[in-house]
Amino acid sequence: MTGLVLEGGAFRGLFTAGVLDALLDIKAEIKYIVGVSAGATNAYSYVSRQRGRNLEIMERFMDNKRYISYGNLIKCRSIMDLDFVFDEIPNQHCIFDYKTFYEFDGKMLAGAFNIETGENEYFDKDLLDKRSSILRASIAIPLMFPFEKINGQYYADGGLSEPIPINKSISDGNDKHIIVLTRNEGYRKKQSKANELTYRIYRNRYPKLAKVLRERHIKYNEQLDFCKKLEDSGKAIIIRPSISMEINRFERNKVRLKEIYQNGYNLIMKDKERIINYV
């Protein structure tokens, strides 16, 4: 079976949104999806078959301070007003099709990092509630979002320890993979000052989280290399941006984000025969 593996990347995830909308248009039926962070949030609209929904949310709400602003860090302890993003928007504005989502006859997994155990856990779509607790957990970048509590355990961004959740797809039995990345070919992650600072903040209280933060760039580059080996052996197709992705994680320029979305969409449409045959 083919697994669809989705990297995160905050608003770089508009590239993934374009890829997923194109997959819907070419009727590529993929029954296994695993994503972390923005990869998971975008995948939910793919599973609910709501083409264009992720792009619509960006275009309608990017200028709304409740959607994203540094002022929210003071009001909500989060760069996003999470109640607005994960409750009000899907339940009042851009209505999420829960019925189609739950009726999906495949597997949709969202990864989140358990800050106590130091392991990623993958939550099945059937555990989705109306406040989207799973997605809140999967995007919880330390210091930018609060940790999300699920069943008495606290979770952070699923991309911290498994930025490209390819190993989960393999362990679940998939022998082919379509891997959607949100960085350009040749990109290599370096240790950032932000991760080093966050490491120092959490090293005493949450040592396993701190360790992942300090080693995140190493793990990411290892997973990139592994994905390339899968691609070279015919076990994976990697979809990555062909335009520059040198943007801020929380880019606010709608025109730039629309270009990134369109790039993802166009790449699939140009290669649709190969994608369909592979699936």
Give a verbal description of the structure:
The protein is built from 12 helices and 8 strands. Helix 9 (193-202) crosses helix 10. The protein is globular, with a radius of gyration of 17 Å. It has helices spanning 14-25, 38-47, 53-61, 72-76, 82-93, 98-103, 133-138, 166-171, 193-202, 207-232, 254-270, 272-278, and strands at residues 2-6, 32-36, 107-114, 119-124, 148-150, 153-157, 176-180, 236-239. Strand 5 (148-150) and strand 6 (153-157) form a beta hairpin. Helix content is 45%, strand content 15%. Strands 1, 2, 3, 4, 5, 6, 7 and 8 form an 8-stranded mixed β-sheet that branches.
Topology:
Layout: E1 2-6, H1 14-25, E2 32-36, H2 38-47, H3 53-61, H4 72-76, H5 82-93, H6 98-103, E3 107-114, E4 119-124, H7 133-138, E5 148-150, E6 153-157, H8 166-171, E7 176-180, H9 193-202, H10 207-232, E8 236-239, H11 254-270, H12 272-278
Keywords, separated by commas or semicolons:
single chain; alpha/beta; lipid degradation
